[in-house]
Amino acid sequence: MIERQHLLRKIPPVDQLLLRPAIVSCIDRTGREFVVSEIQRLLQGIRDAILSGEVSAGDLSPEKIEMSLLETVERRLRPKLRTLINATGVVLHTNLGRALLSEAAQKSLSAFSGNYTNLEYDIDSGGRSHRDKLLEPLLQEVLGCEAATVVNNNSAAVYLILNSLACGREVIVSRGELVEIGGSFRIPDIMSRSGAILREVGTTNKTRIQDYRDAIGPNTALLLRVHPSNFRMLGFVEKPGLRELVNLSREAGIPLVEDIGSGLLVDLKPYGIQDEPVAQESLAAGADLICFSGDKLLGGPQAGIIAGAGKLVGLIRRNPLMRTYRVEKLIYGALEATLASYRLGRAAEEIPVVRMIAMTAADLKKRAGAFARRLKSALPSDVRVSLAEGSSVVGGGSCPECRLPTTLIALEVAHTGPNAIESRLRLQDPAIIVRLEMDRCLIDLRTVFPEQEPFLISGIQKALAEPA
Description:
Largest sheet: 7 strands, mixed
CATH class of the largest domain: Alpha Beta
Structural class: alpha/beta
Strand order of the largest sheet: 3-9-8-7-6-4-5
CATH topology of the largest domain: Aspartate Aminotransferase, domain 2
Number of strands: 14
Number of helices: 20
Shape: globular
């Protein structure tokens, strides 16, 4: 007890610490109030540690406390959202933020974030306008639709469609399409919250057009078709095609809504993207409304796009909840810049998601070989750098069966397992996120920009130079 009291008296006072040059400099950068608060927090932690017998006299020097304080301040002020290097080859990595924006979209964010805009202002007339007017003409041109509106994500789009067009009435959907779209968000739950009444038809693996026809009644508001973006059913399966459902909806006078999910606007079949509906094709086939995400295969910011018949879009716009789900000026700006690339036929060159998917196996092999040679020359001899054939995936709940051929760079270190290598890389600044497969640490350059390669090499150097 006497020893603990002695240690408590050795704790330097706050005023003394505030006079130390490094702490004075820290105050200049961050403010006195914040630093004093952090010192008090740190000293209280030291007192608690002394009383529990966890601190020795050597830990109480002003120098050690100063070092601990500066490390704490740096850690506390570091932004929680940080950039990193995605070396996994997963193009739409949900945990890493999904779609990367084009240069034009990035410039729009920079321009609009620090300036007033005509978000709801008509420059020509000087009167109030509606934000939908900013993007609707471009969406009409790109999609070939009668009308369109934008909300903050595709789940919101589905919810608003159901709440606006089917509240208190039945919506017919195949049991095989009652999907969970990630994060435990399930179509039946969204439908229930919207006020629509779910009318399931068919079975999990087999639904025929007659099942829809038999379910139609006086309380039917919509036919809903949901694209199973994140899974595929194989084997003894059957479901009606879109045109069959269009014909039935016309025959019954009931609107057909298709949730196409990932927002594909160009045909990517030549690059291995199969079984993903193209927005324009769904509308051309006769779907009354479609909805899809902006930050998946479309390659834009997070948004939900609703497009189709003007009368139906008008009803959705007039829903009081529309204000809850509307997007702000930065999303409009980034989405407009993204869609402009599609209008000009430049998506493969300008949209990072499309460009990454379109990378050829030959180009990736050549690039991986050159990178591996540079990496090998920068690392010690006990690090083995090798190449292996493999595949990238689209990710983001899109095209689960698609495999994009690539060449992987494998890292192996004597007496160090792949999990330890992965951890060291992840803790670099910027963090390097790699793939672990078959007991190997793998790098896929499909999702690494060429200008990131020097940082990737230096980060690997630092990580592997750390003691085990």
